[in-house]
Amino acid sequence: MTETTPTTREPDPLEFDKPRVSIRKPEHRFDSQGEAPDAVRVERAMNSFVRDFGRTAAVYMESCIHCGMCAEACHFYEVTQDPKYTPIWKLEPFKQAYKREYGPFAFVYRVLNLKPKVTVDELQQWQHLLYDSCTVCGRCSLMCPMGIDIASLVSQARHGMFKAGLVPHELAAVTERARREGSPLGATPKVFADRCEWLSDEHDVEITIDKPRRKCCAPCPRSRS
Ligand code: SF4
Ligand code: SF4
Questions:
Q1: Helix 120-127 vs helix 92-101: crossing angle, to nearest 10
Q2: Domain co-membership, 67 together with 168
Q3: Is residue 134 lining ligand 2, measured as CB closer than 6 Å?
């Protein structure tokens, strides 16, 4: 009897060990990329936050009057009634970094330690708030009486998380695929050529992709009837 050796398979970049959020029993986890020590991750995130603090972000950070109106605009807060899903709360470490590193009284905040340094634990916990509980829909921005564009600040905060290597696995995987293959969906040049050939057959139009500066306009099916 011949023994069969089990075949090992290269894991797909989009595979991950367990779901980020379980519906039956809510369980949040964070993902991390690379082997950077905690202090380096925090430093990279802070550098990115500070770089993104333009004049507009600074005005937003100083303008919040804590009225809570943005909470009722957010579907995550509305469904859970959990204060941690209040939109402006999702920006807390960003705000902490602003006050301590960039704001007009940053020196005072640092010397008196009125705003402690952001820790890697906070960044890890923050991943759930920034990615799993914000669709960047912009409803909170529309509701804010002070005109604070919370959604754009969430997007800026995500830059820092990327620099720190603390983004959800799935996003890191599609980014890696885009870097490696030129497309986040794995649309390689061969897939593109096959697709053009299919379109060409389907709409009975010549699509030339191997010659420079060729123009192609697929006719609208209705205009051909
Ligand atoms: S609605 Fe605007 S001012 Fe009010 S708490 Fe939210 S971000 Fe702050
Ligand atoms: S942008 Fe994010 S925080 Fe604001 S309402 Fe939409 S999901 Fe909620």
A1: 150
A2: yes
A3: yes
Residues 107 and 193 in one domain: no
Rounded CA-CA distance 214/208 in Å is 7
Atom 2 of ligand 1, residue of closest alpha carbon:
144
pLDDT of residue 14: 56
Global confidence as pTM = 0.75
Residue nearest to atom 2 of ligand 2 (CA): 134
Give residue-wise pLDDT tens across range 35-48: 899 999 999 998 88
Residue range of the domain that includes 193: 188-224
CA distance 161 to 96: 15
Q: How far apart are CA 208 and CA 170, in angstroms?
A: 35
134 and 201 within one domain: no
